[in-house]
Amino acid sequence: MLKERPQTQSTLEIVSIDELALSDHLLCKIDRTIDFPFLHDFVKDFYCADNGRPALDPTLMFKLLFISYLFDIRSERQLISEVQVNVAYRWFLGLGLTDKVPDASTLSANRIRRFKESDVYQQIFDQIVFQAMKRKLVGGHTFYIDSTHLKANANKKHFEKALVEQSRQAYIDELD
User: How far apart are CA 40 and CA 175, in angstroms?
Assistant: First the structure.
């Protein structure tokens, strides 16, 4: 028997975002492992304590950049669109289902202008790696690479070996 499902988009439901976020999601695992409040100590000198309008929370901003890097989202506009609809992203950022997501231009302006010519990104990256090492998640003894095999249309007699380095700064430059 053919049965239609009733429309439920406007149904009022009482739920907790904790119930919706999957505990085995990568971001939930990271949140259990990494203690992010250290970010405020690293960036406090870049903010004025008693002047101007309230700034975008630095923990929120760096977690947004963390999400974009982890899930290979190369556009801040796309990142904000993804956060609008992804419950796991909202949970990781500490946003409720109805909380306003920051504007992409606000994220860009903070990322580009506020920390210009500083090594704060490297310091934060190092601290996260250090915390992961402390919890025995990173040891530095094993190196994994993607060894996907693709058939290349290349001349096997003419090639150059080149050392390629991908850095945190290269990712930031690509966003710019």
Answer: 23
